[in-house]
Amino acid sequence: MHPSVRLLRQDLSSIYFPRSSIARQVRYNSSDKFSERVRRRLWGTDNPPGLKDPYGGQGVLERRWSGRQQPEEAEEADHDVDIAPPEDYVEAKTWDGLQRIGHLGKWSDLPPRKEDTYKPFLPERKFSKSSKVAPAAHQAAVEISMMRMLKKPLTNICDVTDHDPAILEMIMACRIQPSDSWKSTIKFPDQRTKEALIYVFDQLGPQAKKQKAKEANEENAEVESEIDGKLKQEYNTTRKGGSQALALKNPLIKFAFLKRFSQLTGQRLSDSLISSATRVKHLVEYLDKKGEQAPKKLAVTLAESSTLQKLPNVKIFKERQTPAHKDREVGRWKLIDAELRERGLVT
Amino acid sequence: MPVQGIRTVSAARNGVGAFILQCKRIDFHYCDWAGSSRGMVGYLKHRLESFAKENPQIEIRVSPRPQKHPVVKGHYINGREKAICVRNLDLQQIAQKVNLLKEASGEKLKRTKKPVTSMNESVRGIWSPYHGGLKTV
Amino acid sequence: MKRLQLLRWSSSALSPGFRTGSRLQRNVYAGLRHQSSASPALQAENESVTEEQPPGQPIRKLSPEEQRLHLPSPPIKAARESAKLAALHGRLYLPSRLPLETLARTLVDPSADPNPNFNNESLAILGHDLMTYYTSEHLLCTYPRLPLTVVFAAMFAYVGPKTLAAMTREWGVEYAAAPGGEVDPGLLQFKRMAPGTNLNTDTAISTTRPNPDRKSWRHSLSSRIVYDDEFGDITTESNTAVRGATPDQASASFVRAVMGAIYLHAGRPAAKRFFEQHFLSRHLNITELFNFSQPARDLSRLCAREDFEPPVARIISETGRKSRHPVFVVGIFSGKDKLGEGAGGSLMEARSKAAVAALKGWYLYSPLEVRVPSSTEENGAAPWKPVHVDLGEVIV
């Protein structure tokens, strides 16, 4: 049979509209609505073509909200049905007569699935201050050493984005003894810490992943900031050992360290830097330098100039001045605001 | 009433007593990122201070205008404003433009045909055919 | 004479907290005005005010911006932050002893802020008196024979509200759309009138003028000098705090307040210099202020009074008497002296123009060296020599 003839024989609605929308229509039809009945009579069929309501269905927010409320599994099953071809589907050999090549529905019509959401490996915030970069290097070094000591895959540590504050404290309390081979580099402050850390790091792996992640999520940002200062102090006291002198010779260790380090700092490390760095020190120095070189806003520079600040006829704004700013300055804004409130346009 | 007074308003003669600079405000707009603002940023860093000190009668406002070319805008007492785009100009050229704005009166540019304009009457008076040297026919 | 303690005066003008006011009044305003003040004593006062409020109302802590929104005029400390105000100070070449805070206060009209500690009313009264005094002495000494109606018109032209409004514009002062604490203190703040307000409802201030309610009665010139204001108008007062002010009224009170502030902070010489530079330097052609109804009659009366020979009009020259555009040049002679000359399209026109020229020549007499009484106020000034005092205009 010629493909074009086959197309004609098919139910037209399945070509023009994705199956999911048909399913929704059927569901919708079951609810007896007057407009729906009229539509059915007008078209003379139980399956009138066209959108279920002429205004394009639910809005973006509504769709997202309803999608969030439905259970995940059901959604997934639904997609499988959507994507699966009909039973009488015959694969076309040529494109003659085909109105469209590929799936009849559009990918953008389908609701978002789990795979569609993108979660970056690097966190959004970047550390560039030296006060934060060096502790991150120390933490990464301790973690990699622990993983190496426990003979686990080194990059598994990257599954943990945030440690419990208590554990982080312990990690910071550890000292690093520089050695090229990364063997027995950690010096624990006491036996309890050692046992605790070994216990925690032993749990890392595929089976403990979910629980860990949950723990990490529960951590409060406030707690973190409180502890931050304490940690820095801790780090300063234990600095003498120096994780920065560690060598990055072994490619496996180097890769694991770089991965963890860039995850902690949020900084992307360039290839040239990776290939040239032989010690942890190089990475830390590079990031320190990069942080210093960040361009300063002109408004900040001018605000720092004491002579300009003393001049009474100069005014320096840090942000763009809009007509709204002018309205505020001449006192018109409060009139506009009052008028809008009176008319109920602003609450 | 033998004589009545006519109410008028005296006219200003700027510079006869006090001189009021006609440029009352200059706005400096720059972009932190774009290369066309390089000269402008340099001007604001190094020259603005001395300019502001020399001209205390001008209100100076500096504000960023991201993703746009740098602009110097003069506001005048007659209500008009003059804007000059200073993209890619260097420090010296911008200083010239700022000086131009400062010295402008804010009026539209026009050709002056007479070298002197005055509100006062001519000292010599208007020539009259009826006085002096009358010719009798 | 005792030296004036100008600094002490200016400090009291500068900080309204020092102003003598009743305790009650200060308490009422303390909650409003001193919220942003860093002074602990004032804050304590503020707290005591809030404690007295009924307990049912929840007291919400206001942010500094919101606090400013509740003020009727910008707070004192805002004056230092305003570039506009500093530029205005520089533009007028004001003395450095006049602080920005006082300049900010001159820009607040009583219609914006009815509190006399924060508006420019008191400064404006002082400035107004100074300006009218300096103007009138200048006019009377420069043109001793000027008729009084013309003096009134000249006063109006020099320091009238219309002139002051024009000066405000020429100084580059902009108007605020509505007064308030968040407004830039470099803008002129006043409450605007609602559209359609009747401007002629001002009530006359009670003067000693007899029968003030008889508005249709003729006001003689002498009574206008005695009872009315410096422009010969009936002194009125309008309730600007309720009704609002016109831009002209607000501008006038601003300029007067600047004058008063200069006098208060920088002293009399600075105030006089400011007056000469900004007011007397303005162009005013006094010859255009005359409006004669019957100049020929006035001239004959004048000549009779001054014992001149009676004026006679003679044709000096003429052209095209029979044509469509005749021109006659007529001179007015008193004996052998030519008093004035005028050219016109008809003999009558030429004669009246000649009479006007003769009268203006009389009235606009000006001594060669003009000295005003206030010039003797300076240290080491020459003693005052009496100037010419004229009989005044002719009475017909």
What is the H level of CATH, i.e. the homologous superfamily of the domain at 72-194 and 218-286 in chain C?
Answer: Ribonuclease III domain
Strand order of the largest sheet of chain C: 4-5-6
**Helical residue percent of chain C?**
40-55%
Q: Give me the count of strands of chain C.
A: 6
Helix/strand order of chain A, N-terminal first: HHHHHHHHEEHHHHHHHHEHH
Q: Roughly what fraction of the amino acids of chain C lie in strands?
A: 5-15%
Q: How would you classify the quaternary structure?
A: heterotrimer
Structural class of chain A: mainly alpha
The CATH class of the domain at 72-194 and 218-286 in chain C, by name, is: Mainly Alpha
Which CATH architecture of the domain at 72-194 and 218-286 in chain C would you pick?
Orthogonal Bundle
Task: Please provide the count of β strands of chain A.
Answer: 3
Give the radius of gyration of chain A.
Answer: 31 Å
**Structure annotation, total helices of chain A:** 18
Overall shape of chain A: it is flat
Topology pattern of chain C, helix = H, strand = E: HHHHHHHHHEHEHHHEHEEEH
Number of helices of chain C: 15
3D structure, described in words:
The complex is a heterotrimer of chains A (347), B (137) and C (396). Chain A is mainly α and 347 residues long. Chain A has three domains: 3-116, no CATH class; 130-293, no CATH class; 298-342, no CATH class. In chain A, 55% of the residues lie in helices and 2% in strands. Chain A has a two-stranded antiparallel ribbon with strand order 1-2. In chain A, helix 7 (130-149) runs antiparallel to helix 14 and helix 8 packs parallel to helix 11 (221-237). By secondary structure, chain B is of the alpha+beta class. The longest helix of chain B has 13 residues, at 91-103. Chain B has a domain at 23-103: Glutaredoxin, CATH 3.40.30. The mean pLDDT of chain B is 93. Chain B is built from three helices and five strands; from the N terminus they run E-E-H-H-E-E-E-H. With 396 residues, chain C is mainly alpha-helical. Among the domains of chain C are: 72-194 and 218-286, Ribonuclease iii, N-terminal Endonuclease Domain, Chain A, CATH 1.10.1520; 295-363, Double Stranded RNA Binding Domain (2-Layer Sandwich). In chain C, the strands form two sheets. Chain C has a three-stranded antiparallel β-sheet with strand order 4-5-6, with helices on one face. A two-stranded antiparallel sheet of chain C has the order 1-2. In chain C, a hairpin with a 2-residue loop joins strand 5 and strand 6. Chains in contact: A-B, A-C, B-C. Chains B and C meet through strand 1 and strand 3 of B and helix 5, helix 8, helix 9, helix 13 and strand 3 of C. Strand 1 (3-5) of chain B pairs antiparallel with strand 3 of chain C. Chain C: Belongs to the ribonuclease III family. Mitochondrion-specific ribosomal protein mL44 subfamily. Chain C: Keywords: Mitochondrion, Ribonucleoprotein, Ribosomal protein, RNA-binding.
